[in-house]
Write a structure and sequence with these properties.
Number of helices: 18
CATH class of the largest domain: Alpha Beta
Strand content: 15-25%
Helix content: 40-55%
CATH superfamily of the largest domain: Reverse transcriptase/Diguanylate cyclase domain
Structural class: alpha+beta
Number of strands: 15
Radius of gyration: 38 Å
Shape: elongated
Strand order of the largest sheet: 2-1-5-4-3
CATH topology of the largest domain: Alpha-Beta Plaits
Number of domains: 4
Oligomer: single chain
Largest sheet: 5 strands, antiparallel
Length: about 475
């Protein structure tokens, strides 16, 4: 700047010497000063713009690198340096694909990346990244054109190792459940999706909440052009400016907003779930707001929860009748005995002459009989009563908090209900019942054994009856 000023003053002096007219020399001198003033103002404005972009770059919590047209790393923020585990001086002026893609496919990936970048202003790909410590992490690279007046590219990195591990864990769990009906480890309910700066909306706000800067991603997210978003202001996110102004005051007082879920909508009314991160930049006396679109992430989490719930049901339910299976029954008994420590009734019953039903009508009709029996019982069983298939045509009903006499009475009700079942195309059936009760003195094995003996006694007495285990002891 000083050199340019000296040059212009020298030219003006030469012009003054070459002209004899004082008026002409004064005019040219004034014109030179006016040119210097406008040039200085322009350079000052450009410097402020670069400082603003630099602060936004450095304050970002997303690993970000600035790459020139020759593929060399010009600079990177502290988050990127920490993520890569290398010193900045070791990375600057090096070819990014040699540092970040240290394998034989680096040039091939680079060529493919730039080819697609010509079609779209932003491209992403996933590849392993070896950190300075030697640790390899699955990383999502996003490359976009640098905003004017910069030239070159902005690259952001995000660690997707956890997401890949979660997907693999879900796949392995589903495969294991298809092979066997064993219990499985409950899937982690949290599904974490990492967004980088290239796909997040970024807004700078002054102390009054007016937008001073916004990026293209925010426009795409809310389906508005930049001018209209500036007209709407922060209402484009919050709908009403008042909640945002209150939030700005809290942030200015030191409260950092990070990952706050906020439901909103796009220009066309499409529901949009966003995660908001906001902080104050004291050097600029402005706020920055990062808006992440988590709509798909929330949908994926809900789908994962539904899948997990369905898989859990397959583990604890009998595949034919939908009654609880024997493994769940025994676990429930353990829970009542060791954790609840309360008395409960235990009813063991099976279908009389069920082998004859299979031999006479076939096993498909036998299956229909079992399904119908469970369906009818589930309609009348109470909340504290658990029905489980013990094996074959044998079933168990556990009555939590019910006395021995109450369990006998309930068994009689169920016996009458079963013998009154009439379904067209199915034979009429009856059941024999053995009833025991946990009073705090038996273990699980003794409880089941007592009910089993009572069931055999019911068969010896002609079937279709209820026998109290206390009679046998």
């Amino acid at each position: 700047m000083k050199i340019l000023l000296t040059l212009l003053l020298s030219v003006n002096a030469l012009l003054a010497d070459g002209f004899t007219t004082v008026f002409m020399s004064s005019f040219l001198f004034s014109l030179s000063l006016l040119f210097i003033f406008f040039l200085y103002s322009y350079l000052k404005k450009l410097q402020k713009s670069e400082e603003k972009m630099g602060l936004l770059f450095e304050y970002s919590d997303v690993p970000t690198l600035y790459i020139n047209k020759k593929d060399k790393i010009i600079t990177l923020n502290e988050t990127a340096r920490t993520y890569l585990g290398s010193k900045k001086v070791a990375l600057r002026q090096s070819l990014w694909y040699e540092k970040l893609l240290p394998d034989e496919n680096a040039l091939k990936i680079r060529h493919h990346l730039y080819k697609n970048l010509k079609k779209d202003a932003r491209v992403s790909f996933d590849a392993p990244l070896v950190k300075g410590s030697g640790e390899s992490v699955h990383t999502r690279y996003t490359l976009s054109l640098a905003p004017a007046p910069l030239t070159g590219y902005i690259m952001t990195l995000s660690d997707i190792t956890a997401s890949i591990a979660l997907e693999k864990k879900l796949y392995d769990t589903q495969e294991a459940l298809l092979e066997s009906n064993k219990a499985f480890e409950q899937m982690r309910g949290q599904f974490q999706v990492t967004f980088d700066i290239a796909i997040n909306g970024i807004v700078l706000l002054d102390n009054e909440g007016k937008i001073t800067y916004l990026n293209r991603a925010l426009c795409e997210m809310f389906e508005y052009n930049e001018d209209y978003i500036r007209h709407l202001g922060i209402r484009v996110v919050f709908g009403d400016a008042e909640p945002c102004l209150q939030l700005l005051q809290s942030v200015k007082q030191g409260e950092k907003v990070e990952g706050m879920h906020y439901p909103t909508h796009t220009r066309t009314g499409t529901p949009l779930d966003v995660s908001l991160t906001m902080d104050y930049l004291p050097d600029l006396k402005q706020f920055y707001l990062v808006v992440q679109d988590i709509t798909k992430s929330l949908a994926d989490i809900n789908a994962l929860k539904q899948t997990t719930k369905s898989l859990e049901q397959r583990v604890v339910k009998d595949y034919l009748t939908s009654a609880y299976n024997r493994a769940y029954m025994e676990e429930h008994l353990q829970h009542l005995i060791f954790e609840e420590e309360i008395s409960f009734g235990f009813i063991l019953f099976d279908i009389d002459y069920f082998k004859k039903v299979n031999d006479t009508y076939g096993h498909l009709v036998g299956d229909d009989v079992l399904i119908t029996l469970v369906d009818r019982l589930n309609r009348v069983l109470k909340k504290h009563e658990v029905l489980a298939r013990y094996g074959g045509e044998e079933f168990v009903v556990i009555l939590s908090g019910v006395s021995h006499d109450g369990s006998l009475a309930r068994a009689e009700v169920l016996r009458h209900l079963i013998e009154e079942i009439t379904v067209e195309g199915l034979p009429k059936i009856t059941c024999s019942f053995g009833v025991s009760c946990y009073d705090g003195s038996q273990d699980k094995r003794a409880l089941i054994h007592a009910a089993d003996n009572a069931l055999y006694a019911a068969k010896d007495r002609g079937r279709n009856c209820v026998v109290d285990a206390r009679e046998l002891s």
